[in-house]
Amino acid sequence: MKFSNLARALAASTLLAGAVMPVPFAVAQDGKTITGAFDTGPGGFPKKFNPLAATGGFTWFSIYFEPLVTYAADLSVIEGALADSFEVSEDQKTYTFHLAEETWHDGEAFDAEDVKFTIDLAQNPDTGSVFASRLSDIESVEVVDARTVKLTLSQPNSALLADLTQLMIMPQHALGDVAPAELATSTWWSEAPIGTGPFKFDEYVTDQYVALSADEDYRRGTPKVDRIINRYFDNPAAAVAALRSGEIQFTYVEPDDVATLRDTEGVRVIEGNSYVVNYVGFNQRVDLWKDVRVRQAFLYAIDREAIITALYGGAATVAQCGYVAPHLVPDGITEYSHDPDKARALLDEAGWGDINGDAPITWLTYYTSPQAANVMAAVQAMLGQVGINVVPRVVDVPTYNGIVYSNDDAGWDQFPLIYAGIRNGPDPASINIGLNSAQLPPNGANIMRVEFDDLTAAFDAAMSETDPAAAEGKWQEVCAEMNQTLPWAPMWVSSRYGVASDDLVDFVWTPAPAGGPYAAHPELWDIAQN
């Protein structure tokens, strides 16, 4: 596709993007208050308060809940959170955690029983947990004493610590008498949750904001501000408007806004690797995608470089598998450079006219931002040029999750095709949950129902590799298998941006996948008072 054609596609896409105006906002703010759009970003407000069932928003969750371990702020290493320290056995099958002394926000003591209780909940799919398959290698959880927990695995699992960074520890004394199946729909999460973090849950005003108040007894010291408020917006454009007007001090922003915000007095742009690979997902339970030549045609039809240049300002890298990091991508893989003629030829060979022809194909996404609308409009036009007729359908995150995680066979026609993103780092094992045949819903996140034996075998080999020197080669084998079989059509890995007011002091935000979490230390955040 020439740039002129891409421009026409983008012009048409503005009808999808729409114009967004900020909504009036007022809330009592005694003392020092930081207000931000901490959940605004790709997918918008997830409307998910239960961290066992959430697929994003962990930057926010970790302000009032805490995991056992977390990433350092630069995502370079995993360190202790509610665990002061931890050890891993040489065979990587035993993990021992030494716990911090802390109290829950209601004054009850936190201890090892809470950790065991939480892991048991997370392994139980009745709770709505997205961790059930991820933590399935945990064979036993032993409470050694009040401050020590030992996990024993049935086999090594290189993703375990990364998964535990997102597992917020829950209070047994508050939830122990609640039936697991009731937790999935409980209002406790949005009305009176109890955590151990530096801030306590205060109030939720439906679809407007959540307010937290400082926990003066927090083990790392009393927070420097009295309240933190999380504002909710329909999309990033509305959040940027609120930032410009001074209503909020932080928001995620789209690349389109970065150029002007870099020159805006009083704010600073924070940029980093998103560690999210965007992809077009083929529902493998749908007959349309059984022939690999059809899947290959998708990639040849899409001019990914042109989209990156026009819509990402060059701040993205084309992905030929689930990874773009050079040490994970082997030499000699197919590059799938833009070639519409080759795409048409592959479709003809596969008999696309008989398989589907010009019949419209629903293309589902939870991305609601103007940038995502532009991307999908451009891809839609490019696919149309080779005879593939896709029709975008944009829904909110709860609706999307309800569709793709359903096991109702009659619902496959609702999502034959998706546009989505999945965490692909910092730990390369993170992507396993989306492609391993052992991770099928409802217990896992393999929402495209990918059951490719050789790909699963490659993941299993990489996940169980205990020698760090050998692991790199195993992950390259995963990349090569993805590149050859194309369970998805990988698109790119982009940079991600946040903008913070200069009034914020000691504020830490990292553009981490799913919002982290990471060691942001919100108890140290402060705001200058004029």
Automatic annotation (TrEMBL):
Under SUPFAM superfamilies, the record lists: Periplasmic binding protein-like II
Tell me which residues make up the Solute-binding protein family domain. Answer: 78-422
**Pfam (any one):** SBP_bac_5
Lineage, top-rank taxon, reads Bacteria
Tell me its family.
Answer: Belongs to the bacterial solute-binding protein 5 family.
Organism the protein comes from: Maritimibacter fusiformis
Q: Which InterPro entries match?
A: Peptide/Ni-bd, SBP_5, SBP_5_dom
PANTHER family under this entry? PERIPLASMIC BINDING COMPONENT OF ABC TRANSPORTER
One cellular component term (GO) for this entry is:
ATP-binding cassette (ABC) transporter complex
Subcellular location(s) per record:
Periplasm
Give the residue range of the signal peptide.
1-28
- What protein does this entry describe? ABC transporter substrate-binding protein
